[in-house]
Amino acid sequence: SDISGLSNLNTIHGGIFMYLNPALTNVAPLSNLDTLEGVLIINENISLLSLYGLHNLVYSNLTNIQIHDNLALSVCNMQAVCNQLSNPSVPKTIYSNAFGCDNLNEVTQSCSGNGCPTFDITFFLQTEVDSFASAFPSCDSIKANLTVWGINSNVDGLQGIEHIGGSLSIR
After folding, report:
1. The pTM is what?
2. Which of 30, 42, 49, 135 could form a disulfide with 53 if both were Cys (CB 3.0 to 4.6 A apart)?
3. CA angle, 21 as apex, 111 and 37 as ends, to 5°?
């Protein structure tokens, strides 16, 4: 899906609903968007890599966040999302995305700014290993356990890691 025709859009008052777009790889054409109100629902866009494009939001008043089943989505720590994570009145459903955006804990960690996850990490897919560096670009230390399934996995996405606080398992 090509959304470049929306590149002049700067305000949405009713929310964003993006789902079931298998060809959608990015939302960069939305980079002029500075105001978003309502819901943010991004589901089942299997080729979507990042929410970059929502990075220029100055004002967001989100009433619901749903980000799930976007198998390639590893970067969703845009400020509009991060600002709402601590708001208990905003329902948040985040799961089944790529590593870095796979669940609420990962997104919260990615938004925290300290750069490294504090939870156990298990990689089952090559794409999860590959997306680690983009999800946590300043991370050099994993504070818990790290598990990589699949002896044939290429772990180049972890080359910035200098310290593991728990155990390393390669299976």
Report:
1. 0.74
2. 30
3. 50
